[in-house]
């Protein structure tokens, strides 16, 4: 006899789903309300779980927000790990990287970065996750650009400059909302990749530019 669709979920699965709801609510609160307003009470209300369920999963606000850091890191990496385009597509790769610097995940991450400046415990928890995330993102970028481009000896240096530029440009959207898909820097980044990475002639240009 087939199992009833109304049968209760196993305890472990219910606990996991409750945890996911809480973490998603924490990310949304961070993005929409800011770090200071992301209290356990507000996160509880947004997640729709009981106070007891939240405290059972996360006994303190610090525990909750540190877990949110881990959740954010996994979610941000997942947005780049399986892009819907072929490796080596420069335009699509830049578009995907730029899109990853907008939306709820980036906004929530930005709140944590700023808050970490005045909260040492948060900074301590955040730093290794950001280093780990940075390595994962650079690996995803290498996969997106493909082995020919990623095999350039100056690829790692260029990607560091590119990601720093992307982050800096994205920060301006916090006080000047607009359609990021129309940003003129998109074409600049794409041209730079072709100039310095996607052609053999780029080798000489890059070596001269970094001396």
Written overview of the protein:
Residues 39-58 bind DNA. Keywords: DNA-binding. InterPro entries: Homeodomain-like_sf (IPR009057), HTH-type_TetR-like_transc_reg (IPR050109), HTH_TetR (IPR001647). By secondary structure, the chain is mostly helical. 71% of the residues lie in helices and 0% in strands. The protein has one domain (11-209): Orthogonal Bundle (Tetracycline Repressor, domain 2), CATH 1.10.357. Helix 1 (11-33) crosses helix 2. The model is unreliable at 1-5 (pLDDT under 50).
Helix content: over 70%
Which architecture per CATH? Orthogonal Bundle
Radius of gyration: 21 Å
Could you tell me how far the N terminus lies from the C terminus, measured between alpha carbons in angstroms?
73 Å
Poorly predicted ranges: 1-5
Q: Determine the structural class based on helices, strands and strand pairing.
A: mainly alpha
Order of helices and strands: HHHHHHHHHHH
* Sheet with most strands: none
CATH homologous superfamily descriptor: Tetracycline Repressor, domain 2
Number of helices: 11
Protein name: TetR/AcrR family transcriptional regulator
Domain HTH tetR-type: 16-76
Keywords: DNA-binding
Pfam families: TetR_N (PF00440)
């Amino acid at each position: 006899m087939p199992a009833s669709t109304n049968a209760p979920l196993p305890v472990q699965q219910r606990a996991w789903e409750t945890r996911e709801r809480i973490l998603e609510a924490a990310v949304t609160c961070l993005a929409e309300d800011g770090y200071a307003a992301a209290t356990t009470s507000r996160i509880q209300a947004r997640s729709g779980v009981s106070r007891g369920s939240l405290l059972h999963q996360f006994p303190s606000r610090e525990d909750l927000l540190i877990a949110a850091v881990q959740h954010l890191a996994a979610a941000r990496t997942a947005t780049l790990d399986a892009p819907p385009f072929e490796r080596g597509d420069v335009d699509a790769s830049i578009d995907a990287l730029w899109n990853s610097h907008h939306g709820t995940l980036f906004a929530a991450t930005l709140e944590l970065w700023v808050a970490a400046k005045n909260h040492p415990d948060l900074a301590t928890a955040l730093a290794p996750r950001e280093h780990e995330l940075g390595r994962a993102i650079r690996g995803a970028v290498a996969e997106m650009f493909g082995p020919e481009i990623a095999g350039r000896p100056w690829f790692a240096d260029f990607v560091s400059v590119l990601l720093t530029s992307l982050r800096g440009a994205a920060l301006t959207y916090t006080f000047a909302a607009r359609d990021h898909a129309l940003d003129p820097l998109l074409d600049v980044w794409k041209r730079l990749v072709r100039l310095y990475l996607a052609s053999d002639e780029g080798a000489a240009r890059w070596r001269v530019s970094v001396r």
